[in-house]
Each structure stands twice: as structure tokens, then as C-alpha cells.
Amino acid sequence: MDNNLDLIFKISTINSKIIKNIDSQLSIHGITYSEFLVMHQLSLSAAKTMRRIDLADKVGMSASGITRLLNPMEKIKIVKKEINARDARVSFVKITTAGEELYNNALKSVELCSKEFFEDLNNNDIVKFLEILKKIR
């Protein structure tokens, strides 16, 4: 088998295992990995706010996919919609105080899960792996 193809299959399999493990840990908090990713991106952004389209891009979703994900999150007040005063066609998403609290608690679970998943790698291995991943387009 072609090494590039083999690498794609291995990355895909590892990704699935990681998401499955993290989803299991996050179920304790009542959220999914996708919801966690949204809260993570919002928590990293200036003013804890992002345009919906930028958020969709950061988490690897379509505009309609991010809308479907955000609607229930808005209903339970994890995030809130903000209208752009200059352009009504552009909407922003902001993480709420309750969302930040949930995110911070969930982050501890994700960090624990990641440590367990990569326990056989030392810090140098992880740094080198991250450098290699940055080279992938």
C-alpha cells in the first residue's frame, strides 16, 4: 500500500479513537466534542466572540452545520447570538458565563483524556509530532 494512503488511514483511525474517548469523557458534562470545540474556539478569541462563519471554519464545519450545532447550545444558554450593528447579515456568537464555567470544567476532563491517550510519548515526541502535523496541508 502507498505510504501516503496508509498514513491517511492511520490518522483517521487515531482521530476516531481520540474523539470517541473525549466524547465519552464529555458526556459527564452533558456536551459533545463538537460543542466543546466551539466553546474552546470562543474561549480563545478576543472578547470571547466570533463570527459564525469564522467559527465554522475553525471547527471544520459548514455554515449550516455550525448553525445546527449552535441552536441547542443557545437554548441552554451556553452561547448567545449577537447582531452586528454595522451589518445585520453578519451574526456573532459569544460564549456565556455559564458556557465558560462548563467549558473550564470540561477542559479538565479533556486534558486528563489527552494525557492518558499520549502517555507513552514524552514531551519531545509531542513537540516533534506537532511540527510534522504543521507541514500537512
Write up what this structure looks like.
The protein is mainly alpha-helical and 137 residues long. It has one domain (3-134): Winged helix-like DNA-binding domain superfamily/Winged helix DNA-binding domain (Arc Repressor Mutant, subunit A, Orthogonal Bundle). The protein has helices at residues 3-26, 33-44, 52-59, 63-75, 97-117, 123-134; strands at residues 49-51, 79-83, 91-95. Helix 1 (3-26) packs across helix 5, helix 2 crosses helix 5 (97-117) and helix 3 (52-59) crosses helix 4 (63-75). It starts with a helix and ends with a helix.
The CATH architecture would be Orthogonal Bundle
- Measured by DSSP, the beta-strand proportion falls in 5-15%
**Count of DSSP strands:** 3
Stated plainly, the CATH topology is called Arc Repressor Mutant, subunit A
- Radius of gyration over alpha carbons? 17 Å
Shape type: globular
Q: What do the pLDDT scores average to?
A: 93
Strand count, sense and barrel status of the largest sheet are: 3 strands, antiparallel
Strand order of the largest sheet: 1-3-2
Give the proportion of residues in helices.
Answer: 55-70%
- What is the rounded distance between the termini? 21 Å
**What is the CATH superfamily label?**
Winged helix-like DNA-binding domain superfamily/Winged helix DNA-binding domain
- Number of helical regions: 6
Low-confidence sequence ranges? none
* SSE sequence, one letter per element: HHEHHEEHH
Decide which structural class fits the backbone. mainly alpha
CATH class: Mainly Alpha
Q: Please give the domain count.
A: 1
